[in-house]
Write a structure and sequence with these properties.
41% of the residues are buried. The protein has two domains: 163 residues, no CATH class; 249 residues, sialyltransferase cstii, chain A, CATH 3.90.1480. The two termini are 46 Å apart. Helix content is 33%, strand content 17%. Strand 12, helix 13 and strand 13 form a beta-alpha-beta unit. A nine-stranded parallel β-sheet has the order 8-13-12-11-10-9-14-17-18, with helices on both faces. The radius of gyration is 25 Å and the shape is elongated. Helix 1 runs antiparallel to helix 2, helix 1 crosses helix 5 and helix 3 packs across helix 4.
């Protein structure tokens, strides 16, 4: 045990004894650690530099500048080499600094190599593992290197941090003044005016069970059982997302409701033939030619997006929750229809079995397996390939589930992402 580690650990044991015990169990020796030199030096972990190798203090100044200058409470995600923590504690107005560990082994290694006791001993500091809390805290700065190095225990918080950081970038496509958005809303205005209000469906399914069907690869495990439901008089309500419609129809499964929100969905995804007994729920950004061709009853609603602000003033319609993916309004519709229990099918948010979607080829719906550089934990506790936007959609679904404790949520498969708040269905989970 190094002199630095003894000094650092002593402070942690005095202030956070339970956390000290956890740190002693971390396997810092499993990390590939290297000294990287430039104008200064830093530590590289598994090929990722924890800080600048030229000027760590200038980097910490830049990071601190992104935080509100008058914030009394600040959250730092990742421990780094302690530079940002020390810088924040120099601010007179900081009353509490929460430091959230994103990788316990990395922090244990740094404790062996560098004196961290000045910031650890400061009475304004609270130290915890990021994964000990279910949600991120604001305002925050997340150290970039440790967003990459985050371990399995803290992965859920990492995903929420990245989603929050990318929020403005993700919303760039939804500018109410964008010509293509104005043109699309003008094209669907008459349809919105004449079609049913989605609120007509609300409360129509009180106390019953709904299946919400997405297009993740695990859906393929359930085609046979879902097809058997077709002949049952008292079967659950089947709500599917637009891209799941064709795979379901191809396997003899007829959903009750299809939900579509994306302007890129075409008749290729939603062929209109023989749809007279299937309801379509859509948002006004959907393709008007697809809406018009649909033979069954059509219901329209809005999301909270500012792109619908003007139309909302002219035409009052109900609202569905959208968190970036069509899975969100599909689940929200089931809740607002009154379902007491919702089972999710194909809600994988990942690429299990080296596939991107059920019933579609690699790249048919956009993402290709070969470009998946990120991971999420599946229901077996193993890492499975995914992409950043899928992780963001997962975060928003988990937040939605947490906000609706009156509904029982189930996941039908362990192969996709673990969905916090959704138990594994005893009948459908393989």
């Amino acid at each position: 045990m190094s002199e630095f580690f003894q000094r650092n650990l002593q402070v942690i044991e005095q202030r956070w004894p339970a956390l000290a015990e956890r740190l002693l169990l971390e396997d810092a020796g499993a990390l590939q650690a290297d000294l990287v030199e430039g104008l200064g030096s830093t530590l590289s972990i598994n090929g990722i530099q924890l800080t600048s190798r030229h000027d760590r203090l200038a980097e910490a100044d830049l990071q601190a500048a992104s935080l509100p200058p008058d914030a009394a409470v600040v959250h730092v995600y990742g421990t780094g080499l302690g530079d940002l923590q020390n810088h924040m504690l120099e601010r007179a107005g900081v009353e509490r600094l929460y430091v959230h560990i994103l990788n316990g082994s990395v922090f244990a290694l740094v404790l062996q190599l560098l004196d961290q006791s000045p910031w650890l001993a400061d009475s304004r500091v609270e130290l915890l593992y990021a994964g000990d809390l279910a949600e991120i805290q604001l305002p925050f700065f997340a150290l970039p290197a440790e967003l990459v190095l985050a371990d399995d225990f803290n992965a859920k918080i990492r995903d929420r941090l990245i989603s929050e950081i990318h929020l403005a970038f993700s919303n760039r496509e939804f500018d109410p003044k964008a010509p293509e958005i104005i043109e699309r809303l003008q094209a669907t205005f008459n349809l919105v005016q004449t079609d049913h209000d989605v609120t007509e469906l609300f409360g129509s399914f009180n106390g019953r069970e709904a299946f919400v069907i997405a297009t993740g690869p695990s859906l393929e495990q359930h085609f046979e059982k879902l097809r058997e439901l077709n002949d049952q008089a008292e079967r659950p309500l089947l709500i599917c997302v637009d891209t799941a419609y064709r795979p379901l129809i191809n396997h003899g499964i007829r959903p009750d409701v299809v939900v579509s929100i994306d302007q890129r969905i075409s008749a290729r995804h939603l062929p209109p033939e023989d749809t007279g007994d299937i309801a379509l729920v859509y948002l006004p950004m959907a393709d008007p030619s697809v809406i018009e061709a649909w033979q069954g009853p059509r219901y329209v609603g809005y999301s909270a997006s500012p792109i619908y602000h003007q139309m909302r003033q002219l035409l009052r319609r109900g609202e569905l929750y959208v968190g970036g993916s069509v899975i969100h309004p599909a689940v929200d519709l089931a809740v607002k229809m009154g379902a007491a229990q919702i089972t999710l099918f194909g809600a994988d948010f990942a690429f299990p079995h080296d596939k991107t979607h059920a019933g579609w080829g690699d790249g048919d719906l956009g993402p290709q397996l070969g470009v998946a550089k990120h991971w999420v934990l599946d229901g077996h506790g193993q890492r499975v390939k995914t992409q950043l936007n899928f992780r963001s959609y997962l975060c928003e679904l988990e937040r939605f589930i947490a906000g609706h404790p009156q509904v029982r949520f189930y996941n039908s498969s362990r192969d996709g992402a673990r969905i916090v708040g959704a138990d594994f269905h005893p009948e459908y989970v393989q």
